[in-house]
Amino acid sequence: MNPDDIENAATAIVTAIRTTLRTELTSVWLPLQLGDIALTALIAIAVAALLRKRFDLNAAAMGWPGYLRLAARALIDNFAVLIFILLIIITRVALESGFTHARTYLLVVANNLATAWVVIAIVTSLIRNHFINRVVAVTAWTIAALSILGLLDETSAALDSRALLIGGIRVTPLLVLKTTALLLIAVWAATATSNFLERRVRSSPDLTPSAQVLLGKIIRIAVMAIAIIVVLSASGIDLSVLAVLTGAIGVGVGLGLQKIVGNFVSGIVLLADKSIKPGDVISIGEHFGWVTNMGTRYTSVDLKDGRELLVPNEDLVTQKVINWSYTSDRMQLTIKFSTTYDTPIQKTQAAAVEAALSVPQVLKEPKPSCHITAFGATSLEFVLWAWISSASDGPTRVRSAMMIAMWDTFERQGVVIPKPSATHVILDKAP
After folding, report:
1. Quick one: pLDDT at residue 335?
2. Whose CA, among 88, 135, 335, 377, lies 20 to 30 Å from 54?
3. Residue 48 has pLDDT above 90, yes or no
4. What is the spatial distance between Cα 107 and Cα 255, in angstroms, rounded to a whole number?
5. Neighbour-count burial of 67, counting CB atoms closer than 10 A to its CB (0-12 exposed, 13-18 middle, 19+ buried)
6. In the CATH scheme, what architecture does the domain 331-423 have?
7. Is 301 helix (H, G, I), strand (E, B) or coil?
8. Is the pTM of this model over 0.85?
């Protein structure tokens, strides 16, 4: 379609609209239908509000399965729209029965738009991802509204009229919008499917843990690849054209981009399996910090001392990393200490637990515990275990607060911590 065709089509549409408006504005049916729609909407809102006050519709669906409960909640949220649809149908039937040439075209459009709204609300209520939910809802509603108003073909043609050839692919605004929407939906569906299959694999007792992880990764990659291929095929993109891009990537990797590609792929893997994400508290070697940003090449870790550690994504995949907040933000602290032999063991344990519980960040459940670990040459060796509520609070600060509390409690209750003798000091300073 060339620009002249677009201009002619636009002129025809404007002329048709002007003619229609001129005809309808002189007819009594236009204000009658508009008034009927407005009055029906007010009545529907009032009736829905009255029914919500008299009946707790959410409570009736509490025992239903999850997806049915979500669909029922969507119906309840759009209860006024359902009443509006019912009243519009009744009004339309009454007008067509009472008048020979009744014109109810606006009522038909309002009824169809309201019905599409309810159907889309029910379908999207089953999608728990908020972003994908909004994308599907907006896309479906736009297509439904254009189709009901009879503008879908004209809009599609206008979006498909401008094109840009890239590597043999005809790229148009319509292709970009359609591919983007389909890709988002396909990735969400593939993620949900792979999560379900991965849970089934992990629950299989016949597979070893390593085999479960490996098979889960293969399933996730395969499902994602299938979803992307299906979307590209459905969008009308010739997959053979992508062979040029694949070849270019292969040449780049062969020319020395292995590390860059490895870090890029590792970043995608980390984002996909969510083993490390922004906000997590991790340990890498001797470094302990908070993940602040995940890029395509590296991940930034804030060490809370003015420095930021930039870790290549490949290192986070191939090396041992401790994630203190992977499944829970709780963290266990361990403090080793010793007392003199003349201090009762039970008294020491009770004092250590009491000191730990006096620190606000220490959890009451599970309760801190203190155990004797060895009979030393000059002292009894103990270890105190305590859980703190959040690893992001900083274990060093909490450990310091616990040790200060232990010092005060031990001094108050007569628990003696042995001091190094002069002999030990001289030996420590000897070369």
Report:
1. 92
2. 88
3. no
4. 66
5. exposed
6. 2-Layer Sandwich (3.30)
7. strand
8. no
In 3D space, the residue among 378, 374, 396, 347 whose CA is nearest the CA of residue 355 turns out to be 347
Q: Which residues contact 128 (CB under 8 A, 6 or more apart)?
A: none
Identical fold for domains 164-250 and 276-323, yes or no, is: no
Round to whole Å and give the CA distance between 9 and 40: 36
For the segment 213-226, what is each residue's pLDDT rounded down to a tens digit?
667 777 887 888 88
The residue type of 206 is D
CATH architecture, domain 276-323:
Roll (2.30)
More confident residue, 309 or 180: 309
Q: Identify which has the larger pLDDT, 213 or 291.
A: 291
More confident residue, 300 or 74: 300
Please tell me whether residue 392 adopts helix, strand or coil conformation: helix
pLDDT higher than threshold 50 for residue 426 = no
CATH number of the domain located at residue range(s) 164-250 in this protein: 1.10.287
- Please, which contacts does 133-139 make with residues 24 or more away whose CB atoms are closer than 8 Å? 135/181, 135/184, 135/185, 136/185, 139/181
CB within 8 Å of 264: residues ≥ 6 apart: 296, 297, 313
Say how many residues make up the chain: 431
The pLDDT tens digits of the residues spanning 80-126 come to 888 888 888 888 788 777 776 667 777 777 878 888 887 877 777 77
Q: Is 316 helix (H, G, I), strand (E, B) or coil?
A: helix
Nearest CA to 352 out of 291, 285, 408 is that of: 408
Domain layout of the chain by residue ranges: 3-159, 164-250, 276-323, 331-423
| 228-241 burial: b if 16+ Cβ within 10 Å, else e | eeebbeebebeeee
Closest of 181, 71, 87, 173 to residue 126, by C-alpha: 71
Provide the percentage of residues in the chain whose pLDDT is more than 90. 12
The answer to whether 400 touches 393, Cβ cutoff 8 Å, is no
